[in-house]
């Protein structure tokens, strides 16, 4: 009967969920839906611009706005999960994602395309705010594996979106190529509502069941005065700005170099495949290490090599630069979230910290595509943009030194007292 006590509920739920392969499958399926609505745009960008008359800065909004909403909506998603329960909140988020994609079927101008991107981005923001905390609570003893699979699925879905978008546009038009991603979102929604692990339906209503070991909830605003939370958020956001920039502009960059639309889309897809490999393998390689800085330095070094190649020798070995950037970005995304979750042992508090980090971080990541669009409209080239991301990778490498395991508990001492 002890598991009926709210204080014991998180451990009971964790044991039950960790034993269920269905929970891991759901984690992967949700991740697969979070990027195709973004990566499907780049490979057909020239067609969209020709039909809608969008300039480069407006086109950048198709990527920038979702990332902004991923930041702003992180707190909203976590709050809705506490109030209404994770099952309802995540279901509503998947419905928003599907609605945003569906709206692209009738998009006739830039405003309607950007609105659809915003609706889908709001849904993704809510989902991303919830998933790290869910993973830590569902799989407390297998967190690197769970986060690795989730992150790999996230970027793997992006690869599928990039590689199929040109083919769909050729056979059904760009409206279909951008709207079709509503179908897997609705399928995942149906599976989630039917098979969500026990304990997710009414989490917001029962004190303690999603709040970790002490039964007390915590608001994301509690981290606004915590210096380490800001360090983690800046670290996550700036290093991941390279991903948002590549999603928005890599196909256009290589179209300018001379590649066909399909070949440039394939290049983005291959980058996402390498991201998926990095997201899965790097956390697994670092799973036994309490100090994850060595693996983080490796991912940032790979990013630096990739962006240096794009800036200086883009035609020499594009697959090499794509591989380096992809493994570096994918491994960093997963590992930086794991390091964030490592800072607090309590699953709910760690999830709230991850929501804060993603909220601020995605706002920073959103600046990448916009800055490149501004540079292009101002007459600048892509080399300056890729050099900017090279400098960011070097700077984030220096910041990595601050994240020693010995500093985790000390940096969160005040949070633990709340």
Helical proportion, percent range = over 70%
Work out the number of β strands: 0
Q: Give the DSSP E fraction (strand runs of 2 or more residues).
A: under 5%
Major beta sheet summary: none
Mean pLDDT figure: 83
Q: Termini distance?
A: 29 Å
- Could you say which structural class the secondary elements and strand pairing correspond to? mainly alpha
Helix and strand run: HHHHHHHHHHHHHHHHHHH
Q: Please compute the radius of gyration using only Cα atoms.
A: 20 Å
Show unreliable segments: 1-19, 202-216
Name the overall outline. Answer: globular
Number of helices: 19
Please render the helix and strand layout as text.
Blueprint: H1 9-18, H2 21-32, H3 36-39, H4 45-52, H5 56-84, H6 86-102, H7 110-138, H8 143-172, H9 174-179, H10 182-195, H11 227-257, H12 261-285, H13 293-312, H14 318-342, H15 347-365, H16 367-377, H17 382-399, H18 406-411, H19 413-417
Features:
mainly alpha; disordered N terminus; globular; 76% helix; single chain; 418 residues
Please summarize what this structure is.
The protein is mostly helical and 418 residues long.
Structure description:
By secondary structure, the chain is mostly helical. It is 76% helix and 0% strand. The chain contains 19 helices and no strands. The two termini are 29 Å apart. Residues 1-19 and 202-216 have low confidence and may be disordered.
